[in-house]
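retry 2 of 3: previous attempt timed out while embedding alpha-D-mannopyranose. Reduced batch size to 1 and resubmitted. Inputs unchanged:
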Amino acid sequence: MKQRMIERRFNRCLLRPADLPPSQPDVRVVGVFNPAAAATPEGVTLLIRVAETAREKRPGWVALPRWDLEAGRITMDWLREEEVDFLDPRMVIVKATGLRRLTFISHLTVATSRDGRALDTASSARFFPADENEEFGVEDPRLTPLDGRFYFTYVAVSPHGAATALASTTDFRRFTRHGIIFPPENKDVVLFPERIGGRFVALHRPNPHQHFAAPEMWLATSPDLRHWGEHQPFLGSGGEWDVGRVGAGAPPLRTKAGWLEIYHGNDRRPGKPGVGAYSAGLLLLDAADPARILAVRGRAMTPETDYERHGFVPNVVFPTAAVPRGENLLVYYGAADEACGVLEWRLADVLAALRPE
Ligand code: MAN
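retry 2 succeeded.
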């Protein structure tokens, strides 16, 4: 049976690369996507991933950006095209080492929205790479208010791999780093917005590139947000729209029925070329025991609009935040690894779409 998508009551492209000035003169912005968002006194505050690459084009050469720690800026490694294999628009393999490099580098920027549906200001506040674990960029933040601070997890990419780190802020101008909380390769880490049974809880996604398991999300708990344990497998791929990858999307949201988690899946089959399409599904988790999945709904959102179907990586919707607004839910997402979108769902439609596990 083909399921209908949950109706988008409102939908808009919030931000495109051309809307943002580059962070330094010799780069250009190629993506503003995968935004974190949280309700703040200003309305909604977003932390947006900005991807940049070399402005200059040298025929026959490829620019591989990295963060120069000493200079505190982006620098380029120029390699001849025959020195690399192009994997997809995002990635090359350097033949000499067999290791991967990104064709862009990311940092985070802050923006605010009074009504959550359009951006008012892009602030000048930026969160740039700052240590050797971030040499290839900081990516895909997820915001969770906890104990009077805004905590965010983010992906720290470097020659050590793609790890997940934690930082926090109260004013979105000054940021405190708390270090790596999940070592490589681990991404898509979301924190629950309350302690459950006295402990902090996170969903995380260890490396799916191994021989024994299909892609999986895991659950872990912590006494202090820094030390994580009690790891357990949480949800594996269903083998269809999520056969290639499965990972948490927005930090879970408390509803009267339980925790609502909006997650993503990718449909690329092993050995198939390309990146595949990214869609989103829904989970309802027991309020007191979030490892218990009460209800699910596969593909609740698939790439539909022009800016979701065309872009740096075509056919990607990648939800990264959900903010309640009256009876509705504002869902913030990355579109085609290039732009930021927002859509509005009725919470009642969302809960009605879930089916018992
Ligand atoms: C994947 C994608 C990219 C990201 C890299 C490194 O290829 O999620 O957007 O830059 O991993 O994290």
